[in-house]
Amino acid sequence: xxxxxxxxxxxxxxxxxxxxxxxxxxxxxxxxxxxxxxxxxxxxxxxxxxxxxxxxxxxxxxxxxxxxxxxxxxxxxxxxxxxxxxxxxxxxxxxxxxxxxxxxxxxxxxxxxxxxxxxxxxxxxxxxxxxxxxxxxxxxxxxxxxxxxxxxxxxxxxxxxxxxxxxxxxxxxxxxxxxxxxxxxxxxxxxxxxxxxxxxxxxxxxxxxxxxxxxxxxxxxxxxxxxxxxxxxxxxxxxxxxxxxxxxxxxxxxxxxxxxxx
Length: 262
Fold this sequence. Notes:
The protein is α/β, with parallel strands linked by helices.
């Protein structure tokens, strides 16, 4: 792709969550004015099958000139772990076996149906890994292909959330979604540790309790005074502890950056 093509191409950024499909059109790394949209999804069981059906419906009716897609998925459907270093990670086949053993130990037999991937942390260092149901990934890819769309990426929302603030080099960040809370520490431009759990609609108090519980297992958190807060819950809180510093976010789809797919 030429530099001119890279700078002028447009991409539809989508975020698929249990109760909504969010989207925005980006060109040359910037969201286009008035291009954002939100499609509510009636999905009381938070099923990815129902959300995937909504994505198919949107693709069927969208007249977006077959623009390529970049898709992020709600944390509810993405299991994440910090896995220890192993020489098995140096080979693709053995890496999959190693990752399946790590996820299986935490999540049980269900992890065998997941597609697993890990980041490229330096040799000998722990790696951030993610597991997503293979049927969900294939479903998104098939839905895009059925309508002549190219999928540039499919990833957990934690990735775009982190990249959107990485330039500010926070020591830690919190990502809050409807029903889900993720805490992470960072160093050297990478996520180095994380904690994920469910949360209620009144997540303000739970945020501080979750940090304190994590602190019991990781005393080094005592040294972190400020935590960047990305709120995608749709339920603003009046009682967020001072430790957590809100980051202004237009919407989940706006977090995605074209540079990550180049």
